[in-house]
Amino acid sequence: xxxxxxxxxxxxxxxxxxxxxxxxxxxxxxxxxxxxxxxxxxxxxxxxxxxxxxxxxxxxxxxxxxxxxxxxxxxxxxxxxxxxxxxxxxxxxxxxxxxxxxxxxxxxxxxxxxxxxxxxxxxxxxxxxxxxxxxxxxxxxxxxxxxxxxxxxxxxxx
Length: 158
Fold this sequence. Notes:
It is built from one helix and 14 strands; from the N terminus they run H-E-E-E-E-E-E-E-E-E-E-E-E-E-E. It is mainly β. It has two domains: about 25-90, Roll (SH3 type barrels); about 95-155, Roll (SH3 type barrels), CATH 2.30.30.40.
């Protein structure tokens, strides 16, 4: 009798714990780093294998925190650990961002959120843009002259 009453109560408590855990997950973004990327690792420390590089503006969901390390799910789906000091709160629409250095020395501003869209113009490191919207890793931005287009968030920083 006790077992038949206890099992549903335990199941309810477990379900609530899982629900609360999921609700506590926080979406953050990778900040600009000196290297231009942030490593996603197999464990909470620099001694663990690097799974992939993440770039400024990449979105992550924080699943767990251990000291200064956070276990995250990257916007591409891969899970791993990264240093929490290089994560920041949600980008606020309307805030000003700065174009960071790229390998080409410029960033293409496109007509839509993807590299298949037409290039509207080039923007350069140090240029300031206003964040209007986000879709995945792409950011819809407005230049100071009013031109609006899409740029990859990897190359935009606060």
